[in-house]
Structures are given as C-alpha cells and as structure tokens.
Design brief:
385 residues, mainly alpha, Growth Hormone, Chain: A, 79% helix
Length: 385
C-alpha cells in the first residue's frame, strides 16, 4: 500500500514542477513576451506559492492532507487550462501563473508532509529521495517537455498538461488514502509550537540550504536558453532536449544514489558534494562551445542539485520542532523564495554581462558550505544536551 501511495505522491510533485518549468522554452518565442516579463512571471508564480505554502501546510495539519491535495490539484488544472488559451494576452498569462502558484503551494507542502507521515526516521531519506527525484524530474523535464512539444504549437504543451493534471486529480480522488488520522491532527485552539521556532538554532541553516537549492536552479533556468543562444546559437527544441536529458540524469541520481547510498546521518556529506558539483557546473557552463559540451556541463550542475535537494528535505523533516505540515510548508516556501529571487537576480546580472549569473551562482554554492558546517556544529550541541 505504501508503494502505491508513494507512486501517487511522486506523480503529484513531478506534475506540479513540470507546471513551473514548462513555460520556460516557450515564452521567449511569444510575441507578447520579453525577458523582463518572463523573469517576473517566474518570480510571481513562486511568490504566490511562497506566501501560501505555510497556510496550506498548517491547514492540512488540521483537516488532513488528502482534501488539501485535491483542492490544489484541481486549481492547478484550472490554471493550465486558462494558460493554454491566453498566450496572446499578457495580462491573462499573469492571471494564470498567479493561480498556478496559489494552488501549487497546496500540492507541494502537503505532498512532502504526506511522505513524512508514512515513513519512519530510518526510511525518511529514502522517501525524500523519491520526493527529490520527482522535483528534479519536474523542475528540469518541464522545460524539456515544453521545448520538445513546442514544435506542434505553443498551446499543445499546456493543453496536454491540463489533461494530465485532471487525470491525476481523478486518480487521487479514487485511490489516495489519508495519511494523517484524526487523532494526530492539531486543533485550531490547541497550543502548538510557534512557526518561528522552525527557524531557530540549527534549523535556519537547513532552510537556508533549501532556498539555495531552488535559487541556483531557478536562476540557471531563467537565463540558460538566452545564454546558450549567444554562445552556441541553441534553439528551443535543442534546449528542451538538454533539459530533458539533465532531468533524467538527476532523477537517476536521486532514485539510485540518494535512495540506496544515503544512510541516516550521512546526509550532510552528500549535501557538501552537491554544493561542490553545483559550483563546478556553473563554472564549466561558462566554457560552452558546442551542444555536446553544453550538455555535459549541465549534467554536472544537475547532478549536484540532485544530491542537494532530497538530503536537505530529509534533514528538515527529521529535525523539525514543529508539525510536519508546518515544516514542509515552510520548506516549500523557502523553495518558492529561491524561485522568486533566482530568476530576478540572474536576469539582472545577465543584462550586465551574460557570464555574471554563472560566476555568481558558483560563489553562492561555495559560500553555502558554511550553512552545512554550522548546522553540524549546532546539531552536535543539541545531541549532547
């Protein structure tokens, strides 16, 4: 039964992150779109999700995960359907992306909490490895799917995404069982730990790493196609192929290396490795000279992100002093905050010099090693008390 539940949660998260990235290779081709509007749309989607995720997570702690997940999926379906028929109207594109961000927060925060509900501490990293695999697939394959399907028309990826989301809603409605029994739900009037306690002590460093994982990836995605257009004259179709391949490699790492090799207590080592590979990938991309070495360099980056994300998520769920719904909602918010700041900062730097986003990304990844080391110091102190 748990295997079936995990499969549905995997599909939920993957489809949601496909929805975030599917617009990336298509938007630069639209007559109404500029790079400014594209970066704002990416940030707006994530901004609404950032605000709403903690509320969705806390609500699921009170009424259960399943009803909130169902609400989020149906709203996400509506946002896709609207987007499919509004590509000629910029203001309606904005409305559809706001709706997508509003409801994606429900899906992501509750899906992560669902995994925490049905896994033990010993199996938590394996579960979060699947979550990270789904995020990596959706985050990177989303642009790949958009680019590959764009040859059939710009509306086609969004129509198919809407249909896929609706089918997923029907499957969840029929098959997904509630993971949080009534006796474990929090009462509205009950005394609970303050949400601010989630950021105290060692936890703030883990949430900082959650931000970095999405910040670096979102910044890369917002500029990579424009960067490679300048460097190697890449097309939307080729960009889709690159991102699709890197998504597959990232998923294999998260589904293989993370799930099979990362044992409880080893997460920090893999986080360090992930940050080093992320920094190396940014530097290598500066030397792109052909489609093939651009792919190789992108695979280095995506390998690092694939190691980083699930290990951070697992540690948050293991160490949090608050309820799982609140913790996963806050983690989702930090992820969304990274997807707000990443495209905006990367685009601003890109306007100054096309190499700056990648230099800055490498520096940020290396500087984030301090979060890992500080977390380890505080975690050992907490264990000794």
């Amino acid at each position: 039964m748990q295997r079936n539940q995990m499969a549905m949660i995997f599909a939920l998260i993957a489809v949601t992150f496909i929805g975030f990235g599917i617009i990336i290779p298509i938007m630069p081709e639209l007559p109404v779109m500029t790079q400014f509007h594209m970066s704002v749309l990416l940030a707006l989607y994530s901004g609404v999700s950032f605000v709403m995720s903690p509320f969705w997570g806390a609500w699921s702690d009170r009424i259960g995960r399943r009803p909130v997940i169902l609400t989020g999926i149906f709203g996400f379906f509506a946002s896709f359907l609207l987007l499919a028929f509004t590509l000629d109207h910029l203001w309606l594109i904005y409305v559809s992306r706001m709706l997508g961000g509003f409801f994606s927060g429900a899906v992501i925060s509750c899906a992560v909490a669902y995994v925490a509900d049905i896994t033990s501490n010993e199996n938590r990293t394996k579960g979060m490895g699947l979550v990270g695999m789904a995020i990596g697939l959706g985050f990177v394959i989303g642009p790949g799917v958009g680019g590959l399907l764009s040859v059939f028309g710009y509306r086609v990826p969004f129509v198919l995404s809407a249909l896929l989301t609706f089918v997923l809603w029907v499957v969840v409605l029929a098959r997904l069982r509630e993971s949080l029994p009534p006796d474990k739900r929090s009462l509205r009037t009950g005394k609970r730990p303050s949400r601010s306690s989630a950021f105290r002590g060692r936890m703030k460093h883990l949430y900082g790493l959650s931000f970095i994982a999405s910040f670096t990836l979102a910044g890369l995605e917002a500029t990579l196609q424009f960067f490679q257009m300048e460097k190697i004259g890449i097309t939307a179709f080729q960009m889709g192929g690159l991102l699709f391949a890197s998504g597959i490699v990232g998923a294999l790492i998260q589904g293989g290396v993370v799930r099979r090799m990362v044992k409880p207590g080893m997460e920090s080592r893999f986080i360090v490795a992930g940050l080093l590979l992320t920094a190396a990938g940014f530097v290598l991309l500066l030397f792109s000279s052909s489609l093939w070495n651009a792919l190789l360099f992108l695979l280095v980056f995506s390998s690092g992100n694939a190691l980083l994300r699930p290990c951070v998520t697992s540690l948050i769920s293991q160490k949090t002093p608050v309820e799982q719904g609140v913790a996963s909602g806050l983690s989702s918010s930090m992820d969304s905050l990274g997807r707000i700041a990443g495209p905006l900062l990367a685009t601003a730097l890109f306007y100054q010099n096309i190499h700056l986003p990648y230099i800055a990304g490498s520096v940020v990844a290396l500087a984030s090693l301090s979060f890992v080391f500080r977390f380890l110091v505080l975690d050992r102190r907490a264990a000794a008390q």
